[in-house]
Design goal:
This protein is α+β, with helices and mostly antiparallel strands. The chain is 23% helix and 15% strand.
Length: 141
């Protein structure tokens, strides 16, 4: 299965998402988006495919969001996209693209919606100790 993750190795949610993908037996294409951001068109398509608005895809915490005035409701989607491309830390992460769909994997287990359900055969526990999959590889609600 062809899977791409727009990843930030400094982010625990991104690391957990990557580990879940690998636990499914998939070695994804890993794009460290802070060093290699997606094109503007690619970012817009991923956001649309994930069913999000541009504003929902902007990361506010730990970014210059407020300093750049991006909380201004008069800004257009085009202006927001321009800001995200110019300052990639504004792109919420991790975005994951598979043949089954595109998701902002927040929380990390949201990636399970776009991975084959039968790919998991055992438990999975996130870095913080939260168990996501049981001993049979089934999602814990």
């Amino acid at each position: 299965m062809d899977v791409t993750i727009y990843h930030n190795p400094a982010c625990g949610t991104s690391r957990n998402t990557l580990a879940l993908i690998r636990a499914a037996g998939i070695e994804p294409t890993v794009i460290e988006y802070l060093q290699k951001p997606p094109t503007r068109d690619r970012l817009a398509k991923m956001i649309s495919d994930a069913g999000m608005t541009i504003r929902e895809a902007i990361r506010e915490k730990g970014t210059p969001y407020a300093e750049l005035g991006l909380d201004n409701p008069d800004l257009t989607d085009e202006q927001l996209l321009d800001a995200m491309i110019a300052t990639p830390i504004l792109i919420n992460r991790p975005l994951v693209v598979t043949p089954l769909g595109t998701r902002l994997a927040r929380p990390s287990e949201a990636v399970l919606d776009i991975l084959p359900a039968d790919a998991f055969t055992g438990p999975f526990t996130k870095e913080d100790g939260e168990q996501v999959l049981d001993n049979e590889g089934k999602r814990i609600a």
